[in-house]
Amino acid sequence: MTTRISVISAIIKKDLLGLLPLVFLAAAVFFLEPIIADLELDSDSQFWSMLKTNFYWLSYFMLSMLVVSVIQLDPAASLTHDWLTRPIARLNWLVAKTVFLLLTVCIPIILARTLVNLSNDYSMGVALLNATAIESPAGLLPMPFLFTIALLTGTLRRAIFLVIAIVMILILPAWSATQPLFDFLGVNLSPDYDALMWIQAIPITVAGMAAILLVYWYQYCRRQTGRAFLIFSIMLVLVFFSMFPPSSLYNWESAIAIQKSLINGPDEELEEYVILDHARACFPAEIVGSDFGNAVLEQAAWQEHHLTNAGSGALTFATTVNTRRILVEWVHAENLGRELTVDWRIDRLRTQGRFSANSLTADFYAQRSSTAVNRFSPITASDTDYWLVPGAVAAQLAHDPSTELTLEFDLTLLSPSTYELKTDGQRRHFSELGYCSARINSVSNSIEVECVKRGPQPAMVSAELVGIKSSRVDSNYQPNYKASWLDRIGVKRYELAIAASNLVDNSSILLTAYKLERILRKQLVSNGFLGSQSSTCPAPMDSQFAAVERSSWSDKSPHEVSSIAVDRGVRLEVLDWRTAEQATPDIALANVTVRSTFDGSSNVQSVKPTLVLIPGLGATAHSFDDLAVKLSEKYPVVAMTRRGTGDSSKPEYGYDLQRLSLDVLQVIATLGIETPILVGHSMASEELSFIGANYSDRVAGLIYLDAAYDRTKVHKELRALEALLPPTPAPIPAEFVSYETARLYAERIGSAGNLPEGEVLASYEFATGTNKHVSRFIEAIQRSAQSPDYSRISIPALGIFALPSSPEALMKPWYDQSDPQLLETLREKYRLEKAWRQEQISRFDHEIENSEVLAIPDANHWIFLSHEAEVLQAIDRFIMTLDY
Amino acid sequence: MIVDINQVSKSYGGVKVLQDLNLQVPEGSAFALIGTNGAGKTTTMRLLVNIIQPDSGTALINGINTRALSPHDLTQIGYVSESQTLPDRLTIEQYFSYLRALYSNWDRSLEKNLRKKLDLPPSRPLSKLSHGMRMKTVLIAGLAFRPKLLILDEPLSGMDTLTRDEVLEGLLGQAEDTTILISSHELAEIENFTTHIAFMDKGKLLFQESIESLRSRFREIHVTLSVKKEMPQDYPASWLNPQISGHSLRLIESNYQNYELMFSTLATHFGAVRFEEEAMNLREISKVLIREGRNSRDGAAI
Lengths: 884, 302
What we know:
By secondary structure, chain A is α+β, with helices and mostly antiparallel strands. Helices cover about 40% and strands about 20% of the residues of chain A. Chain B is built from nine helices and 14 strands.
């Protein structure tokens, strides 16, 4: 044993002396790498940021040099080297070389990393533990290749030549020379499933390790260089085919089957909760090369050869698929004092589009764009794909009534584990996320989050402002699907930056680790070529195809539009239906927007109280375009649009309830309105209740239009039931040609009243029928909700509520009326909703000293549209009781 | 026999470097392997220390197949080659310190003596040594553990005479129990201390025998003929390179036994003759042998 140790240490000493300059240089590089990676760059210097992101290449190069050099100090490939006839046992050689590499590579790295970790406030134990893990195990994949080259060649020059030769032959021309060769041989290489590619690392690793052992055996023990090279060549071929496996051997089916067998448990119930729906009634389409463009082609970003292959007259179309948010986890946010939902996420591994039609001899698979503009977008609840169909096939499919499009999705289901993390910069430990810290960077107006996790990694990490889902940032655009045992020896750093940190209270954030739960396959079938039959969804080559003509839309309500400053850089859209006399009885010539008396001490006197209308969430002042006209016959009426919505300013701050309420008061003051009556729809109850409780001297009364609910108490059961209901069908393009045709859509979806034309223009996307407001502002407003303090409201308040009268009344026209399960869901929803609403009504009625309640059965949430007359009457009655 | 090579062949890329080589080295001998460049001497020696492996045949050292030499076996074999690649960044002292750890049988005093005798500067890096110093270093490195067999591949080429003598003296003085297998393209360098000799050419062994027997059977014969005569067709195969000119004949007898026998053989072919025999030195013998070996097809005549 002593002899063995002395032999090993003699070899190590000899190698150290022999490679001293390289060892020092490498140690310096290894030592600097973690330090440079941890540097916080204050300047925008391109050099430093380039150095920071690329320094690891130098480190990789030094590692390669060390590996090759230390092996080549005692090469078997030589015929002249002194060591060849020295009595050195193979084991001693191996141990000596290994220890040498550990000493020269690991020590500086671990030392530097430990120092960096300590400087980042880790405890000594954690600092050391994290420092000893491998940061990018995938980066070690080429190492066996390097080792075998070092074993095979006697000199560095030969090693470099061999590397260059291999790169030249195998890797560089892979897509120019190798690919056509394989095409010629009929071998289809299919490198098209990145997320699942970790599986290929296994044969590569095994082939690499086996090659090291065999090459060592033949070269060092048997002195059979020829065989060693043969083994090396076999390894190269294996590695090549592992990297680019022929699709006959390893294709999507087998890749997914392998993954499924590794991941899926017996619990298939989860799959039923994944429900996909088309977001559009008709798929937007465009003919390649046509003059009339609708951006589909631009977004699809086809590669030239795809378009060439498809031929002239090819048609490209887009399908958007929504996922129903049925699978959610609830998390209690301390910061907000209430529970929030965190969605499970669904990632798509692969999407196929298949047309079937009687006129087709075989199903036709449409080409899917892998270069579309959104290809690197994060996983969202809505995903768009772009497809290409050759002109002849498109014409055939468009006119065949039996045409059917089946979209087939291979999906993964990711379950969240969410934690709240204070933004105080303190490091905290979470089991799925490792050590995490978050701090506010006031310069870049962002929150910087960092997690360092050793061992098994989550599929994905994300961070978001509490209550603002759309502020979410993900650690990687594609989840990590590696089997967790592959991560055991590794450590991974997650760095995330949440933008617009001042949008809402930023004293803490939500951090989520996602775990891969299941791999599943879903299909979505649509009858017809572009979403439905050509009569409903015409193809661009058909004569009835017409663009939605927005020009026929206009805001016809007789209001004056003002933009009123309420805060630094924040101006709100205000619609004014008042006559000149109503507006300026004392100073006839003054302009309303200029005549601002910020202290509200204007001496305007009106016979009748002014009504200030505040819209619901995701709506604008235009939602009152019709109601206001009727109201203005009797009262002065203005309506305002909240900040973050419509034509009002969208600052990245100021969405707490106090600020939103002050916005309302500021508008009132600026317009010189004295003690108006606030009329709020839906979410506006927040401002109404807040002002009523805190600024009761500024207003004369409050009118809640299906609004007076406590939004901080989440009704989980109701939320879960609602998620199960089929979504509202999207409008077809023809329905949005004009306001008149839009009525057809309203009828189709069973809407009792029509949104005013101005509101449709302001709030809706014509192509999809979806709300077009920026979701982070909408969420910020939503987050401002507080439990109403009705007991502090002393001014008169009228609550008009919509109440369901029966489960059947909840049945929408597009629901499957014969579905017993759906009916059951509606019954349950009715029961819960009625009870909840009644409780809310009763609370309003009892807690507000001077309250009045009107519950209208079977009214729509847009109660002033569905039951306009009743609402107007109730308002009249209410105002008459006021002391004016 | 400490070295026993049987029917060994080796080729590189189709070129036969060794052909059915048989070679036996007696224990305790100083065995010289002679041949021109490319004769296969270096290959034979590398084969003995398992740097390369034979395509066919076996080579044994101390009865152990060279393909299966263990590290322990290598502690009994010293190998010195002119083209040896050394760990150049090490100093002489560091190099010996490294080697000392490898050999349990390292003789420090021998190392010390030899280093002193050959006057090597301990702190000089190996890369900065002259050719002579370098060879002295590797010779000590091959000898200081008192191997049973010391294989020296052209150790003296490129050395000036003074150094060569110094080295040989140092070596000979210390290698009493060591069998030495030394190769050279010139026999004269080593003739003073070799006991056995083998001649190789083009991968073949021409012959091997002791120096004594070799010296005794080679004679240069100068004959004066009484009658002018053509060279007869049936002259003995042991006569090498006969040159006849008028009344004089010159030849090399490779199987000389005694004066009488020589005289009667000459008389049988030429009638009345007078001749003188002259002993040859090894340099001359080796020249003849190499020449003859090339001319004859299989070297069997000698």
